[in-house]
Amino acid sequence: SLYLANMSGGQLTVREGASTCCYNIVTAYGDQVLPIILSSIQAGLEAIKGTDASPDAWTRAEGCVLTLAELAKIKAHQEQVSKLLPALFIDSRHYSQHLSYCITLVKSLGVIFSAMDKRWFKPHLELEVIFQCAASDNIEARTVGEQCLVVLSRVIGPRILRGRVEQCSNPQYLTIHDRVIHC
Which letter does DSSP use for residue 173 in this model? Predict the structure, then answer.
């Protein structure tokens, strides 16, 4: 319960520590604790779905994202973890209002794409937040967005990624993709 509470910690290092501890607990105890942790993550992510989520809810959601990324590293539980991936994504109209969450999410997506078997994340792949970051005026957001695109291109293949980007409704995304991936 302490580590689940620390996913809401005010300091990023506290949330990162909680995510690492949850990873260690699941590695040691597996199915005995995984449902409890996943349930807590789901509740934390659902709390931001309303348009008037409190700052504390966004902080907790960031901790949930970090924890989910850590759990994605455990091969035996990737299928269960992947079921929560859709809960990570918010209405794209709110991405610019919650830049800290988006940066944490996109940075964590890079970890998830690198660790998780692609059959588990590909059905849930949403590119909007990655491109919102990659197109941002904020240097940190742009950097994590571009890095995430590079990782995703490496993991699923540059042609497959480009095909997905071509299907996006925003034509600017293809320009960003080609700049970052050097097509």
Answer: H
